[in-house]
Amino acid sequence: MRSAGGQGQESKLTRAEAAAKRRPKPAREATPAAKIASAGNSSVKNSKRAPPARRDTDASALAMADLLEAHRDHTFRRLPSRRVTGERGALAFINETGFCAAFTAGLGVPCLREAIEGRREPKLPEHIQHDRAIIMTWNLKDALPARKAVYYGKVIAGRPSFIALELLPAFLRLRVTPGGYRKLYERGALSHCAKLVMDALTRRGAAETKALKLSSGCAQPNRRADFDRAMKELQEKFLALKVEERYDPFTYVWDTVENRWGEALRAARALSPVEAAYRIVRRYFEIAAYGNDRAIVRILGIDAAPVERVLHRLERESIIRRGLRVASIRETISILATLA
């Protein structure tokens, strides 16, 4: 029979043994084979997780992104030393780029206001009526189209834009629907208000905004949004355009593209769709350096089929490289070959 002291000592030992069992055993050094197997299992478990990028790869990708933006800084004139300073410089800029936005920077195409500022994507000021670049752009959008030195309208990404005369036939070939506005309307591709505006312009010639509102039945205040959408629609389809701004009282004067730019339309008919797309897309890459295929189609308003054929041709000619990824750019892009 054990003594009480023995029982207490045994109880302590039992508790100590139990604690020892619960205590984790020190890790044993794994054999090389075990390490390799462990690494293999880990890679299988984390196969969806991308491996950490090498520093030199990251640096190379960032250097490429900087190189592409530096190219745009030069061609978009986003540098103080290259900024546009007057009407002659603005016309030279539009002719160099082939097409550009008027006021909106950051679309992936050149912007005249940005070039006047001489820096990347300047924010719109709170009081735009006192901003030098905006005032200059506003005056240029009147002066240059008035003497038919450039084309102006809401045609690039649906924003006010300029097109150089050299590329205007190519845009007209791709964006003007054969058969005219009546055929578009019959197919349901033109709004009723836009069709009535075109009826009035075709019948009467150039007209002020107020006359067109009355002709289209959109003179009431609650129809203003319908009229504004119709005028934007007609500009995007290269059917009508603003040809003058009058300031006393303030109003716009509109005309048909056929009446205003008949010679360019005739030149457009001599181009095939693919050749027209080639001229535009090649100039895009020469100036913008890179772009995503879908974004190019959307911004330029060109059908995807001829653009895809042109991209294949530019790749065969070693002008661009396709299917590339660059740090800070989410989509797969095509890049001007001299920079890739």
Fold topology:
Layout (H helix, E strand, L loop, with lengths): L3 H19 L9 H14 L9 H21 L11 H11 L1 E3 L10 H6 L14 H15 L3 E7 L2 E6 L3 H8 L4 H7 L5 H13 L2 E2 H8 L7 H13 L3 E8 L2 E7 H4 L1 H8 L3 H16 L1 E2 L1 H8 L3 H13 L3 E5 L8 E4 L4
From the structure above, extract its key features.
340 residues, alpha+beta, Arc Repressor Mutant, subunit A, three-stranded antiparallel beta sheet, disordered N terminus
Structure in words:
There is one protein chain. This protein has 16 helices and nine strands. It has 340 residues and is α+β, with helices and mostly antiparallel strands. Among the domains are: 84 residues, Arc Repressor Mutant, subunit A (Orthogonal Bundle), CATH 1.10.10; 67 residues, Winged helix-like DNA-binding domain superfamily/Winged helix DNA-binding domain (Arc Repressor Mutant, subunit A). The strands form three sheets. The protein has a three-stranded antiparallel β-sheet. The protein has a three-stranded antiparallel β-sheet with strand order 4-6-5. A hairpin with a 2-residue loop joins β2 and β3.
How is the CATH topology of the domain at 83-166 named? Arc Repressor Mutant, subunit A
CATH class of the domain at 83-166: Mainly Alpha
The portion of residues assigned to helices is 40-55%
Shape: globular
Please state the structural category: alpha+beta
Q: Biggest sheet: strands side by side, in what order?
A: 1-3-2
Averaged pLDDT: 86
Tally the helices: 16
End-to-end distance, in Å? 91 Å
Gyration radius, in Å? 32 Å
